[in-house]
């Protein structure tokens, strides 16, 4: 344990400091090569593994690089990230600074503690710097994190194992260590690179002591990092097996590549509150949450058995919708097991996450496939061979994505007499699904998806959010479904061993049936959740949604519906002019030949077409929007002509210059041009001419041109572009 006197002084002093404002003596920003004074009587820190650290000695012999966010003024407690670099220069990564700013975290990195320095000294310098900041500044003692790079990352893991009383989370980059030696299943990029576990002998009692503090461990790596395999071994064969709260996060790049998003995801994990929304082992014991709505399923032998048959699909729906589409996200764990004695390759099992925006879906028979036009994600496990196939599918209406196949992979090492563990890490930037067995590395993925180098973790990530910010924000419905592939053949029973859902926030409802009013404004008609199509306003209809409230109670909804109508959506036309018959509406004229594109500036009741085409008006009236039928307009017609069939005018439309061909020579020709209001633009007589080369200098628009010679006349609609 830590030296008791030192710990008492430390905690007493820390309590005193957090009660008053302590501004930074160096200001804010990056402070380089800073010396720190000795501790105020802290003495020697002794770890539970009996290693001792003289913090004053380290403070006297080392300098530090420090980053203090610009918002720090001593009034609010900030967290600390103590960083150990692989080189002898204390690093402050520029890409991490935005996260330090937004998360209110101070970073301190000791100089002169690279990979050649003994672990005890590297750890001691990092510990001393962090503890001294706790004396000097206003620090939140629940947010003290170890961090490091490569060999420094392995040492930062040792540091939190030395002092789990002080450090509350780990943020290692391109390296890590663990409390015991683990199986070496994964070697990536650089085969046979050496693995390092903690630099001291951890016995079971010491492991249990560290685990009792329930710390969180985020391990950052990259796809071509030669340490990625080591980190996967630690994660899968150490932390996951021992029930440690952990996550590994990777990005593209080589050894020690990192980024702002990389670090932000790590911070969000170690600061995840881990609220247990659902925990059900089906063992007839106290559970978290309100259980499951069952359809052709029952609890048998401490498992949830799915009894699908030829005519019925077996299903289970969670009664506790949960939240996850945010920075911190959620975690789901479960384990699927197929009845092995009669395994006959004729079953499927689905795990679905369905947006709970419309609670009426709770009463529908869902889960056997993607739900149309609603955000949802489906993992489909097909037991149709010796090794099952996994399909991951998504429906994303906000992204105009329907039935998106994200992944198809077949296991290579599953046995019908063993369970299949499945774990989700899901947050607004990524969906990660980790399976207990390994896929054939030739699995099919789409552009959003990657099968990681462990061949068991499927990563779905985009440069921006795959889902809209409003998707899943009223909760997510967790569904399970099992069925036959061939209804005429026998099928195996599928069992669910347990379900656990961890979120960063919860949904709460009253213990009795909740009552709410659903206010809706609609145009012309609306079909409500009761299936009735209403064509007039209604404020009395009610509907009871069974089990829809977050704690499994019913939810009684009253309809408050206002129906509005567009009173008239017809038009009339005269020549090139189209007029909407509605008075007092808002108008927007549309070009039907260009995908109903709006015509800029054309918002009057009438529209004069400038070129041949089809046009409509969008009317907004009484809060409703409607669009008229398209009207065909021919604008460039010769309205009148008795000069003969060879008479012509070109080009029309014109940018200014145009010609009139009379077909033969006339002694006297009068040309008159007016606008559509009758205003005279030009009137001129031409003598002894057959071809007239003319020009109109007026603004773009439509004009009427009259050509007269004796008793012969032509009238042309002329368009200036």
Describe the structure.
The structure is a single chain. It contains 8 helices and 46 strands. With about 725 residues, it is mainly beta. The protein folds into 5 domains: about 5-270, Alpha/Beta hydrolase fold, catalytic domain (Rossmann fold); about 275-505, Jelly Rolls (Sandwich), CATH 2.60.120.200; about 515-565, no CATH class; about 570-635, no CATH class; about 640-720, Immunoglobulin-like (Sandwich), CATH 2.60.40. Strands 11, 13, 14, 16, 21, 22, 24, 25 and 27 form a 9-stranded antiparallel β-sheet that branches. An 8-stranded mixed β-sheet has the order 1-4-6-5-7-8-9-10, with helices on both faces. α1 runs parallel beside α4 (about 120-135) and α3 packs parallel to α8.
What Rg do the Cα atoms give?
A: 37 Å
- The CATH class name of the largest domain reads Alpha Beta
Strand content: 35-45%
CATH topology of the largest domain: Rossmann fold
Distance between the termini: 87 Å
Helix content: 10-25%
Could you give a short account of the major beta sheet? 9 strands, antiparallel
Our count of domains comes out at 5
Mean pLDDT: 87
Query: How many strands in all?
Result: 46
Structural class: mainly beta
The oligomerization state is single chain
CATH architecture call of the largest domain: 3-Layer(aba) Sandwich
CATH superfamily of the largest domain: Alpha/Beta hydrolase fold, catalytic domain
Low-confidence segments, ≥5 residues, pLDDT <50?
Answer: 1-19, 508-513
Number of helices: 8
| Global outline | extended
